[in-house]
Design brief:
- The protein is an alpha/beta fold.
- The protein has 6 helices and 11 strands.
- It has one domain: 3-Layer(aba) Sandwich (Stationary-phase Survival Protein Sure Homolog, Chain: A), CATH 3.40.1210.
- Strands 3-4-2-1-5-6-7-11-8 form a 9-stranded mixed β-sheet.
- Helix 1 crosses helix 4 and helix 2 runs parallel beside helix 3.
- The termini are far apart.
- The structure holds magnesium ion (MG).
């Protein structure tokens, strides 16, 4: 029976995680190691400066809440909970409440959870549900997640690769293999005041146009298709590397 390790960044109490686990259960043994609190936008942060508390969930067998990030969760699962035992056959992260597309992918804690699996040589998937009017119905997304996970369990993935999967709202009409797009983001910083008159700030972004190419993740979502983008942790810009080899830095 395959071992499926699940995490997310919206916390162990998130509806997207529960819907995902329910759909993955028929595929194998599911172990859930997820953050005790929300960590959206935490990227691949790891907790080094304070103790990592872990609570085994009494009401659910094989569920652990970690007071840390998705990366902490996967590290703790692989190097403590499963130490000396067979490694998971797949790592699955999500289902995130909201998209992880284009330039935002490196902000994502959901993607980071899967990245930690991939870096450790385990086929990994990150699932995110794109909302319509801020409504999230995870049922079709969880069904797709289970079908794709089954495929990955059967066929594997290239070494150190994860699949970043974004699912459009509403019924699924199909999928497209994509590359990460570029979004023209408009960043808004809102200033507010607390009851003591001190200012505080909210960082927000709004889409302001998008990459027009057809093969990017945004385009698949706009066409009502699931966007599946293979990612690696190696962010080296090989094109720039070749160009910069011609550089001569003065006085060196
Ligand atoms: Mg999130």
């Amino acid at each position: 029976m395959p071992l499926i390790l699940v995490t997310n960044d919206d916390s162990i109490y998130a509806s997207g995680l529960r819907a995902l686990v329910e759909c993955l259960q028929p595929l194998g043994e599911v172990m859930v190691v997820a953050p005790a609190g929300e960590h959206s936008g935490c990227s691949r942060a790891v907790t080094l400066g304070r103790p990592l508390r872990v609570r085994k969930q009494r009401e659910r067998d094989g569920w652990y809440a970690v007071e840390g990030t998705p990366t902490d969760c996967i590290i703790f699962a692989l190097h403590w909970l499963l130490k000396g035992q067979p490694r998971p056959d797949v790592v699955v992260s999500g289902i995130n409440r909201g998209a992880n597309l284009g330039d935002s992918v490196t902000y994502s804690g959901t993607v980071a959870g899967a990245l930690e699996g991939a870096v450790n040589g385990i086929p990994s998937l990150a699932f995110s549900l794109v909302s319509r009017n801020n409504v999230f119905d995870y049922s079709h997304a969880a069904d797709f997640a289970s079908r794709l996970t089954r495929k990955v369990l059967r066929s594997g993935l290239p070494p150190k690769t994860l699949l970043n999967v974004n699912i459009p709202p509403g019924p699924i009409r199909g999928y497209r293999l994509t590359r990460t797009g570029t979004r023209l983001l408009c960043t808004n910083i809102e200033e507010r005041f607390d009851p003591r008159g001190r200012p505080y700030y909210w960082i927000g972004t709004e889409a302001d146009g998008r990459d027009e190419a057809e093969d990017v993740d945004y385009a698949a979502i706009a066409d009502g298709l699931v966007a599946i983008t293979p990612l690696r942790n190696d962010l080296t810009d090989r094109h720039a590397l070749a160009q910069l080899k011609h550089w001569e830095i003065e006085d060196l």
